[in-house]
Design goal:
The complex is a heterodimer of chains A (407) and B (129).
Chain A: H1 3-8, E1 16-17, E2 20-21, E3 23-24, H2 35-48, H3 58-77, E4 86-89, H4 92-107, E5 113-117, H5 126-135, E6 138-142, H6 155-158, E7 163-169, H7 181-190, E8 194-198, H8 210-213, E9 217-221, E10 232-236, H9 238-243, E11 254-257, E12 262-264, H10 278-294, H11 296-315, E13 320-322, E14 334-339, H12 344-352, E15 356-357, E16 359-361, H13 366-372, E17 377-381, H14 388-404
Parallel strand pairs in A: 3-15, 5-6, 5-7, 7-8, 8-9
Antiparallel strand pairs in A: 1-2, 4-10, 9-10, 11-12, 13-14, 14-17, 16-17
Chain B: H1 6-13, E1 26-31, E2 40-48, E3 51-60, H2 63-76, H3 81-84, H4 89-95, H5 102-118
Antiparallel strand pairs in B: 1-2, 2-3
Helix pairs in contact in B: 1-2, 2-5
The chains are: A alpha/beta (407), B alpha+beta (129).
């Protein structure tokens, strides 16, 4: 894995920000795009654009084939049994909402329970809050310990015969913790509950084998894994998708329509009402090709090296505190931290003056920040194109900010 | 570093009018979930004869929101309610030399929102009882 070669694939990395070379460390928010993906999207619109699934003409045939080929690529990427288990949506949030609507509103009733965790992104929390309110079911939470791990010992106690669904993130977008979803799935299934996994921070960075893991639904988004914004994936076991009602109604998701009655298409198409984001899906297919061309294991190792280096260097800064698990084997390439006496927003603004992009705030995980007793954190997150040198720039930038703010 | 001018940093490090005001008859607290953190500013005003005789603030926040509160409280002290109600977003931007990005403007506007709540300008209830 040659990082310099990889960096050349990403045109935006040669940009200057405030007169300095861009150091992009906000990958947990969104990734940059390689020219291979940009070209695939551009080629689609230059040469193949047409509406999918209904047209007889040549372009319609080409567009449909490209769209369905992208679905197959995604299926292979996560080792799904069939591409019919891959539903294209807008993003991970929509994937989770789809399950909350199409499965949740049919299968949950008063007194039932949904179990989630305190470390969720709002996208894997708010849909369940609303579902619980509407179905009068109860939302329960698995807590974390001081090291940022889920308290799995509490799992047995929290899973009851009333638990219908466990919704958990695979990798925390703040702590970086990799949760043992296979173990959680075993416990949930033994209890008769289904499991939905938020894979938004997993899919871009580590290999996925949905058959091995055994859970029931997986949500992830394209834009965090080199693909364009506006295309995401819900993977669900085929027998579950078959039993679920459509989420949105209209064109493309139907088999037969008369004025009074409609029969629906089969999964995944029955969940894809209206003209889909074909260009986005084609871009996602190209992103999958790019990632698999390098190898997810290699990407994981590279990010592990960067994370270890970052933790080591950052912790040497006086007044800086990092959050999440100690060992890089147990965490993804996300490092949230605070610097005593400097608000994360001020740190982010100061670093931006040197072309360094980090995230600051609660990272759409307000309950987790409340749990940690923090109003906000700064977050650096890495991807395949980042280097140790960029982490050195980050460290220098933080030292400079400390001087500026007199800390 | 354009936005963090000496004057701004001084207003953050030694903010003016920080504290509670025991004799306050107007009071408003604003939180800033929009800026992606849970910073807050609370204003205490003593209004007499249609004039802001005294004003104090307390809060937890970044350089921008605290400096903004410090500068704003200085600006409205002694003003009539009608004069204080004229304070606009543009005037807050000017306090920072026009160097704020649109994201950081939400930090700078937080004390202004609290002022408008205290002056009952934005339909929200203040906490003056």
């Amino acid at each position: 894995m040659n990082i310099e070669t990889i960096r050349k694939d990403f045109p935006i990395l040669s940009r200057q920000i405030n007169g300095k070379p861009l150091v992009y460390l906000d990958n947990a928010a969104t990734s940059q795009k390689p020219k291979q993906v940009i070209k695939a999207v551009s080629e689609y619109y230059r040469r193949h654009n047409a509406n999918v699934h209904r047209g007889i003409h040549t372009l319609a045939e080409e567009a449909t084939n490209l769209y369905e080929e992208a679905r197959k690529k995604v299926a292979r990427f996560i080792n799904a049994r069939s591409e019919r288990e891959v539903v294209f949506v807008r993003n991970a949030t929509e994937a989770i909402n789809l399950v909350a609507y199409a499965w949740g509103r049919k299968n949950l009733k008063r007194g039932d329970e949904i179990l989630t965790t305190v470390m969720e992104h709002h996208s894997n929390l708010v849909p369940w809050q609303i579902l619980a309110r509407e179905t009068r079911s109860t939302l329960k939470f698995l807590d974390i310990d001081e090291d940022g791990f889920l308290k799995l010992d509490d799992l047995e106690k929290l899973l009851t015969p009333k638990t219908k669904l466990v919704a958990v993130t695979w990798v925390s977008n703040v702590l970086g913790t990799i949760n043992p979803v296979r173990e959680i799935t075993k416990a949930a299934h033994a209890n008769g509950a289904l499991v939905l996994v938020d894979g938004a921070q997993r899919a871009p960075h580590m290999p996925i084998d949905v058959q091995k893991e055994g859970f029931d639904f997986l949500a992830f988004t394209g834009h965090k894994m080199l693909a364009p914004m506006g295309v995401g994936v819900l993977w669900g076991r085929e027998e579950l998708l078959e039993k679920m009602s459509p989420f949105l109604f209209g064109g493309d998701m139907i088999r037969e329509v008369s004025l009074k009655k409609t029969t629906f298409n089969t999964p995944p198409w029955k969940f894809e009402a209206g003209t889909p984001n074909v260009g986005g899906a084609v871009g996602l297919g190209a992103a999958v090709d790019y990632l698999l061309g390098i190898g997810m294991e290699k990407i994981r190792v590279h990010e592990g090296v960067l994370t270890q280096y970052a933790l080591l260097k950052l912790r040497k800064i006086k007044g800086l505190k990092t959050f999440g698990p100690e060992k890089v084997e147990e965490r993804g390439g996300v490092v949230a931290f605070t610097v005593e006496g400097i608000h994360p927003h001020d740190l982010a603004t100061a670093l931006d003056q040197d072309g360094i992009a980090i995230r600051s705030g609660h990272h759409c995980a307000m309950p987790l920040h409340q749990r940690l007793g923090l109003t906000a954190t700064a977050r650096a997150s890495f991807y395949l194109y980042n280097t140790k040198k960029e982490i050195d720039f980050l460290v220098e930038g933080i030292e400079k900010a400390k001087k500026l703010f007199g800390k | 570093m354009a936005v963090y001018r000496k004057e701004i940093l001084e207003n953050y490090q030694n903010p003016k009018n920080r504290g509670v005001l025991p004799g306050a008859n107007r009071r408003a607290k604003e939180e800033s979930p929009l800026c992606g953190c849970t910073d807050w500013v609370e204003l205490f005003l003593r209004v007499e004869d249609d004039k802001i005789k005294e004003i104090k603030f307390q809060g937890e926040g970044c350089v921008i929101s605290i400096a903004s509160a410090s500068i704003l409280t200085e600006q409205v002290k002694g003003k009539t309610l009608s004069e204080a109600s004229q304070i606009s977003e543009d005037m807050i931007r000017q306090n920072f030399g026009g160097d704020l990005t649109s994201f950081r403007e939400t930090c700078a506007f937080l004390p202004l929102q609290a002022l408008r709540t205290a002056l009952k300008l934005n339909g929200k209830k203040d906490r003056s009882d």
